[in-house]
């Protein structure tokens, strides 16, 4: 155990499908002495770490926090100082709603070398898995990526602003606030705006519900959709080849009315 050189690599595990892990992530895991991992959509990803690597679950699920963020920061540093090479594995991308920057800053305050391996973010990959291009020429020239629930458990005030724009709106961690989100879009007269909700995106458990701002709450009830899910609001949802049939049928029914 002499000459241990502490190093921390923050690795994005991608949106859930283990094949969407980057080659750089696989290489980083192969060199890990310790892996601290979140509640990953697919734990098969841990198989890329050496068999003798220590694996520590530090994930969070709603109402069930294995560790606080401060404890996680300390665990990362303690393990790096004791064992050397620590991989901190986070779902999606570590810097998109992943609190990765806090972990990097804490480690660097101890003079520990840190490396970040970006991951494929579910913000982009999960809509793409349903053929939804979150930007599209002539339809949407930008997108918002918003957390539905802020650190103080409130609805992000950016959602009200996004509802005023013509951009695609992608909301993570928003299922518990869905009625409030829908209300904000209805206030902007966006009742007919297409919406897709994708639960467990890119995994074998994926479930999808599509509708409009006015109908999506009913769809969620019928299909029993819940967390973790991504909410996509915007005209680009209607453009998806996978979902086109639904919207053509839906709109013709609306016209008959």
TrEMBL record:
Catalytic class of the enzyme: transferase
Q: What family does this chain come from, according to its entry? A: Belongs to the precorrin methyltransferase family.
Origin species, per record, is: Flavobacterium procerum
Q: Which GO terms describe its molecular function?
A: uroporphyrin-III C-methyltransferase activity
Its name, as the record gives it, is: uroporphyrinogen-III C-methyltransferase
The keyword Transmembrane helix is annotated on this UniProt entry: no
InterPro entries, alphabetically? 4pyrrol_Mease (IPR000878), 4pyrrol_Methylase_sf (IPR035996), 4pyrrole_Mease_sub1 (IPR014777), 4pyrrole_Mease_sub2 (IPR014776), CobA/CysG_C (IPR006366), Siro_Cobalamin_biosynth (IPR050161), Uropor_MeTrfase_CS (IPR003043)
Domain of life here? Bacteria
Q: Which pathway, metabolic or otherwise, does it act in?
A: Porphyrin-containing compound metabolism; siroheme biosynthesis; precorrin-2 from uroporphyrinogen III: step 1/1
**What would be the name of the gene that encodes this protein?**
cobA
A Pfam family reported for this protein in Swiss-Prot or TrEMBL: TP_methylase
- SUPFAM superfamilies under this entry? Tetrapyrrole methylase
Q: Which CDD domains match?
A: SUMT (cd11642)
The biological processes this protein is annotated with in GO are:
methylation
Bilayer-crossing regions: none
The answer, when asked if Secreted is one of the entry's keywords, is: no
Q: Where is the Tetrapyrrole methylase domain?
A: 7-215
Question: What does the record give as EC number?
Answer: 2.1.1.107
Listed A to Z, the keywords are:
Methyltransferase, Porphyrin biosynthesis, S-adenosyl-L-methionine, Transferase
